[in-house]
Amino acid sequence: MAEGLNQTAGQVLVAGFHGDSLDERVGRLAGEASLGGVILFRRNIVSPEQTRDLVRDLISRAPAHLPPLVSVDQEGGRVARLGSPVLRLPPMRRLGEIDDAELTRTAAAVLGGQLGAIGFNCDFAPVLDVDTNPDNPVIGDRSFGREPERVAHHGLAFAEGLAASGLLACGKHFPGHGDTELDSHFALPRLTHDRTRLDAVELFPFRKAVGRLPMIMTAHVLFDALDPSRPATLSQPVITGLLRDHMGFDGIIVSDDLEMKAVSDRWGVPEAACLAVEAGCDALLVCSDVEALHAARAALVRRAEGDAAFAARLREAAERFVAARRRHPPSPAGADLSSALTNPESDRVQAELDRRVAGSAAGMPPARGENP
Known about the structure:
Elements: H1 5-10, E1 13-15, H2 24-31, E2 37-40, H3 48-61, E3 69-72, E4 74-76, E5 79-80, H4 92-98, H5 101-118, E6 122-123, H6 148-164, E7 168-169, E8 171-174, E9 190-191, H7 195-200, H8 204-209, E10 215-218, E11 222-223, H9 236-246, E12 252-254, H10 261-264, H11 268-279, E13 284-286, H12 290-306, H13 308-327, H14 337-341, H15 344-360
Parallel strand pairs: 1-2, 1-13, 2-3, 3-6, 6-7, 8-10, 9-11, 10-12
Antiparallel strand pairs: 4-5
Helix pairs in contact: 2-3, 5-6, 5-15, 11-12, 12-13
């Protein structure tokens, strides 16, 4: 990228904000070519039409050669930011229990088509964490199951469905958040498993995803066997050494939200942004505080101005992230959005999901945890 450091730093940042219209501070960053994209939550979404108009506003401000990432956490179950008429997916555990990969793939393809019609070009799904800890407060039924093979099988089917509709899928949370007893939104979890266990369980779905997923999200979790001093998001041995170099992943590596207390309580958002880029992340989520986003950009610029190696890493991250967005630009539907959301195929898949889930639900344990 030939742009200055302010723009280069901005291109790795993905902003969250409050309100059901585009935050003007975020809009200005987009207009200055200093924003990589946005992530929308329930607080931003009133209806598909309103969301489409918000996305159009963002796209109209961004330079044509720098299309934004327009992303959402639409996993299914309790992590679903959009309601009806968007496809109602069950918790991924239910799809894993049904164990019909074609149903998983088809459901994701229908969902991807609907999200794309609204204007999204990225769904932060599938969850590739293996649900091995009954006391895990944050993953639980968001996972496809307790067996690494099943998680990989259905996670990749879900990703293929999204890809068939033109959306970027994102596997999360590398190297694995499924066995933690703490929620990284509120504290820093630690896993003491040795490398043999990590290879067999936590890393298995991510290894299968290499070459088949365009994006992977990091976990704010300490792994003693990999780097006992820093959580994965901020760890060069984990992100560059393991995921990029050893496992051979060549897609986008995106941080989980840098405002989560697992990292922000100790490092703060600006320092965490620099450490994440240095570790090997290409895109950084700052999901709520626009002022923290500005502070992160300023910190990235300061670090790049005084460190040529960091400046090169920042440019590499921005170039990789921009290239992915150019391959998958957001493109909201025209006036008749309702027909893109509700049609015979989406009705058929919804009915099939409801029927199959009802048949599998008897005897299933209740959902655990809650996602903020």
